[in-house]
Amino acid sequence: MSDKKQSAVEWFEEQYMKGTTILPVLFQQARQMEQEQNAEAYKKGWDEGTDELYKGVRKIYDANKIFYNIDS
User: Fold this and answer.
1) With the CA atoms of 53, 55, 60 and 65 taken in that order, what torsion angle do they form, in degrees rounded to the nearest 10?
2) Residue 35, by phi and psi: left (phi above 0), alpha (psi -120 to 50) or beta?
3) Mean pLDDT calculated for residue range 46-66
4) Using H for helix, E for strand and C for coil, what is the string for the chain?
5) Are 70 and 64 in contact (CB under 8 A)?
6) How far is CA 39 from CA 32, 43, 62, 65, in A?
7) Which end of the chain is more exposed for a tag (fewer CB within 10 A), N or C?
C-alpha cells in the first residue's frame, strides 16, 4: 500500500490497474483494510461524540453551580 491514505476500493483498483492478478488473497486484504478503516472511523466518531457529551454535561454542571451558588 502506498503512503497516502486510501480506501480498500482505491487500493483494490490500484492493484487491478497494475495488472495484478485478482486472487482471493487480494479480496481478503481489501476486506481487512475496510474493516480497519471502519473501526478507525467508529472510534473517531465515538471519541468526538463523548467529548461533545462531556462538554454539554460540564455546561449544565457549571450553570447549576452558579444558579445554586455552590463553591467547590
Assistant:
1) 140
2) alpha
3) 90
4) CCCCCCCHHHHHHHHHHCCCCCCHHHHHHHHHHHHHHHHHHHHHHHHHHHHHHHHHHHHHHHHHHHHCCCCC
5) yes
6) 11, 6, 34, 39
7) C
User: How does pLDDT run across 21-55, given as a tens digit for each residue?
Assistant: 778 888 888 889 889 999 999 999 999 999 999 99
Nearest to 33 by CA among 2, 4, 3, 9: 9
Taking Cα atoms as reference points, which of 8, 13, 4 lies closest to residue 28?
A: 8
**What mean pLDDT do residues 6-17 have?**
84
Delimit the domains of the chain by residue range: 36-72
